[in-house]
Amino acid sequence: MSTIDGLPAHILLVHAIVVLAPLTALLAISSALWPAARRRLVWLTVALATVVAVLTPITTEAGEWLEGRVGRNADLHNHTQLGDTFVYFAIALLAGAILVAVVHVRETRGRAVSRMLVGAVAVLTIAAGVAATVQVYRIGESGARAGWSGVSAQPVRAGK
């Protein structure tokens, strides 16, 4: 996918990742820690984590297409390298959401769920959620540097 309505697809798709990955992380962590949230949000969380995992390689491919059309520099190279790693974070987030769903299914079927299992799932989900959110920030910050390097922070005065 190269463009959407004439705009580079990467620039549009990346906004979905920037919004959905931290939102999914927040929902997954809430569901892992809070049984009432787990009952209400677990399937939404799994669905959003799946969307993030599917959109990530599509967004990366669109970014590689865009990279081939702009001047390459160190900032863009750093952004590309970081962006290529996000698929692992997206998969970890999906795995955390699935593990929370497994706990939920066991609870709703009346099967005993040990506190140790719930605690381990919570720790893994928190780690995946925090890591994914931090990585989204790092990738976004490096992309902003790549896109805005060389742009002055000073306003341009009309007529000058």
Q: What features would you describe in this structure?
A:
This protein has a single domain (3-147), classed as Four Helix Bundle (Hemerythrin (Met), subunit A), CATH 1.20.120. It is 79% helix and 2% strand. The chain is built from four helices and two strands, in the order E-E-H-H-H-H. It has helices spanning 9-33, 35-67, 74-108, 115-148, and strands at 3-4, 7-8. A two-stranded antiparallel ribbon has the order 1-2. The protein is elongated and about 70 Å long. The mean pLDDT is 92.
Overview in brief:
This protein has helices at 9-33, 35-67, 74-108, 115-148, and strands at 3-4, 7-8. It is mainly α.
Tally the helices.
4
Largest sheet: 2 strands, antiparallel
* Chain-averaged pLDDT: 92
Radius of gyration from CA coordinates = 19 Å
Indicate how many domains the architecture comprises. 1
Strand ordering within the main sheet? 1-2
Per CATH, what is the topology? Answer: Four Helix Bundle (Hemerythrin (Met), subunit A)
Outline: elongated
Q: Which assembly state applies to the chains in this document?
A: single chain
First-residue to last-residue Cα separation = 40 Å
Any idea of the CATH class?
Answer: Mainly Alpha
